[in-house]
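Reviewer 2 asked us to include a model.

Predict the structure of this chain.
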Amino acid sequence: MAEGGAPTCQLLFIFMFFIFFFLFSSVMSSREEIELLLSFKASINDPLGFLSTWNSSVDFCNWYGISCTNSSHVSSIDLSGKNMSGQISLALFGLLYIQAVNLSSNGFSGEIPGNISLCSSLRYLNLSNNNLTGSIPRGSVSELEALDLSNNMISGEIPADIGLFSRLKVLDLGGNFLVGKVPNSIGNITGLEFLTLASNQLVGEIPPELGRMKSLKWIYLGYNNISGGIPMEIGELTSLNHLDLVYNNLTGEIPSSLGNLTDLRFLFLYQNKLSGSIPSSIFGLEKLVSLDLSDNSLSGEIPELVIQLQNLEIFHLFANNFTGKIPRALASLPRLQILQLWSNKLSGNIPKNLGKQNNLTVLDLSTNNLSGEIPETLCNSGSLFKLILFSNSLEGEVPESLSHCRSLRRVRLQNNRLSGELSPEFMKLPLVYFLDISDNNLTGRISDRSWDMPSLQMLSLARNEFFGDLPPSFSSSKLENLDLSGNQFSGAIPESFGNLSELMQLKLSGNMLSGDIPEELSSCKKLVSLNLSNNQLSGHIPATFSDMPVLGQLDLSQNQLSGKIPPNLGRVESLVQVNISNNHFHGSLPSTGAFLAINSSSVVGNNLCGGDTTSGLPPCRRFKTPVWWFFVSCLLVVLMLLALVIFTIFFIRRRAGSELKRVENEDGLWEMQFFDSKASKSITINGVLSSTIEDNVISRGRKGILYKGKSKKEEMQFVVKEINDSNSISSNFWTEFAQFGKLRHPNVVNLIGLCRSQKGGYLIFEHIEGKNLSEVLRSLSWERRQKIAVGIAKALKFLHFNCSPGMVVGNMSPEKVIVDGKDEPHLRLSPPWMVCVDFKCIISSAYVAPEARETKAITEKSDIYGFGLILIELMTGKSPTDTEFGVHGSIVEWARYCYSDCHLDMWIDPIIRAVQASNNQNQMVEIMNLALQCTATDPTARPCATHVLKTLDSVLRSNSCIFSP
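Predicted model (C-alpha cells):
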C-alpha cells in the first residue's frame, strides 16, 4: 500500500500544481486587463461620468459598459452614445479575450488604433458616428463578423486586402471621405450579408466580383462618383433584397439579369445616367415594395407588365424620357401608395380606375402631355394627401369626389384646361394648406359661397375666369400667400383682408377692382409683396402704408389713383421695388428709400417731379431765399475744413502705422508692417516669436498654425498665423498686404500686422474673444441666430462691394465665423493669394459651391452659396456634412423638399421649435426662401450680397434690436 500510494501523491501534486498555476495566471491576466481598461479610460474625456465606477474598489466585470465571460475575462465593451471624446487608446485592443466593442455615436477623434489586427478574438466592432480620421488600418481580424466605421472622417483608399476579412457578415464604411476604387478582393468575402460604402468619394466601376458574394442581402453604394455600367453579375446574388446605387454616374442600360433577384424588395437606381428601356424581367420581381428609377435618361413605354408587382407600394419613374400612356395595370396594384411619374413625355388619359383599388397617398403626374379628365376614383382610399397634376392638358371639371377627399393637404392643378365651377364642398376641405388651380379656364362667383379652409396657407386662383366680388374671408388665420390676379373680379377690396395677420404676399392685379385702397391692409404687418396693378382703383395711397414694417415690393401701376405720394413711404427701409406708373399722381417724388434711384418705367404716366436722373422726371421748382443760401454755404465751408483736418490727422497716423520697418534680432533680419497704430506701438518681433509655442496653439491648418499672443506693453491680445510654406508668399507680398491690411469692418477679423524673414512669415490678426459658429450654433436662440445671419451678410456686402477690388471669403463655412460674447459674428479671411493656394482644401469643404468644384474658380457667387448653407444650418440645425438626407442626397435638395412640401415643424431646429418657432414662422419661411435662392445651382440665379442683406433687413425689421444704426 505504501508503494502504491507514492504515484497517487505525485499525481495529486501535479494536479494541484496546475490548479495553482491556472489560478495564478488568471489573476495576472485579470490584473493586466484592469490596467488596459484604466489606460483606455485615461485617454478619453467622459463629461457625463459613465466611467466613474471604473476603479479598483469595484470588480471590473461590474464596471459600466463591461461584460465578462464565465472565466472572468472582458468579452465586450458597449459605451455607445455617451458623449465621450478623445482618442481611442491602443490599450483597448490589447484585451486578448474581447469579442465585441461598441463606441458608436460619441466624439472620438484621431486615427483608428493599428493593433486591431492583433485582437484575434474580436467579432464585432462598431466605431460609427464619431470624428475618426486617418485611413483604415491594414491587416485583418480572422474572426471579425461585423465592422462598422460609418459616419466618420476616414480618408484614403479601401485596403486592397479587404478580402482577408473572410468571415465578415456586415461591412459599413459609409459616410466617410474614402477615395479610389472598390477593391476587386472584396468579392472574397463570400459570407458578407450587408455591404455599405455609400456617401464617400469612390470612383471607377462596380467590380463584377461582387457576383461571388452569394450571401449578400443589402448593397448600398450610393452617393459616390462610381461610373460605368451595372455589372450583370449582380443578377447572381439571389439572396439580395435591397440594392441601392443612387447618386452616381452609372451609364448604359439596366441589365436584364436583375430580374433573377427574386427576393429583391427595394431597387433604387435614381440620380444616375442610365439609358434605354426598363427590362421586362424587372416586372417579374414580385416581392418589390419600392422601385425608384427616377432622374435618369430612361426611355420607352411603361409596360402593362407592371401588374405583376402586386406588393409594390412606391413607384418612382419621374425625370426621365418615358413616352406612351400610363399603364392601366397600375390601377390594379392593391398596395400602391406613392406614384410619381412627373417630368416625362407621357400622353393619353390618366387610367380611369386609378385609386379605386389602390391605397394612394401621393400622386404626382405633373409636367407631362396628359389629356382627358381627372378620374373620380383618385381618393377612393380616403388617404390621398398630395395631388400634383400641373402642366398637362387635362380638361373637364374638378371631380366632385375630390370635394369630399378630406385627407387632401396639397393640391396643385395649375396650368391645365380645367373648366366649370368649383363645388361648394371643395371650398371646405379642412386639411388643405396649399391650393393652386391657377392658369385654367375655371369660372363662376366665389363670393357667394362660404370658404371654410382653416389650414390654408397658400391659395392661387390666378389667371382663370372667376368674376364677381372678392370673398370677405377664407376662414383661415394662417393664409400667407393669396393670388387672385388675372381674373374678372370687380367691386371693392374687402376691408376684412386687413385681418389676414400672417399674409406675406397679396396679388390682386389684372382684375376690375374699383374704389379706394383700404387702409386696413396696413394691418398686415407681415406683408412683403403687394400687387394691385391693372385695376380701376381710385383715391390716394393710404399714408398708413409707411407703417408696414417688412413691405418690400409695391405695385400700384395701371390704376386711377391720384394725390401725392406719402413722403413717409420713402422712409420704409424694407421697400426695395415700387411701381406707381400710369396713374394720376402729382407733386414731388420722395427723395429717400426705394424712390432714390427708381426707374423711369415705374413712374411714367403721372404728373410727378424730382427723383434721380434715372427717374426721367423733371426737377421740382424750389424757391430759396439768398439768406438761406448764405447760411448753407457757410455751413458747407466749415464742414469741408473740419473734414480736411480730420483726414490729414488720420492719414498721418495711418501712414506712420503702416510704414515698413526692418528689425534685427537673434533669428535674423525681419521686415514688419502694421495697419493699426496701437498694434504698432505694442507688438514687437520678440512678442510675436515668443507667442509661437505649443501652449498657445489655437488651431492647425494645411497652411499654418494659429497662436494666441499678448504684448507686454499695454497687454494687447492678438492672433498670430504662421505661414508654413514660404513659397506661397508672392513676390509682391507687401503690395497685396497693403490692400488686405486696409480692410476695416466690425464683422471682419482685421489684419493688424505682418512680419517676414527669409525663413518664413507671420500674419498678425486682432484677437476676438469667442468661439466658432459651429461650436455654439446648437445653443443659440432664434433671435441670436438672426443677429449672426445679418452680421455675416453685412460682412459679405462690405467685401464684395466696398472693397476695391472686391474680395471673396473662399471657404464660406461656420468654421470661418467667430461669434463673440455679444453674438456679433466676425469673418476670418485669408489673403487673396492664399485662397488660391488653399484651393484643394476649399473644394474638399461641404460648403463650396458646385461650380467651384468643376471650374476651380472661387467667386462672389461661391460665397453666397456658402452663406445660403449657413442660413439653412441656422434654421434646421443640420450640417451639409450630415448623412441623413435620404433620397434627397444633399442638404440643399432636402431643404427644397421641406420648404415646398413639409410643415415648418418638420424641418426647423428642435432647439428653437418649441419655444420660439410659433411666433416667428413667417420669418423662418422667408429666410429659408432666401437660403434656397442663395444655393441655386445656377450661379447667375443667386442674389448678390446687397440684395441678401436687404432681404434679411426686410424680413427681420420688426426685431429692431437686430439692426443697430
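Residues 96 and 119 are 6 Å apart (CA to CA). The chain is about 20% helix and 20% strand. We have added this to the supplementary material.
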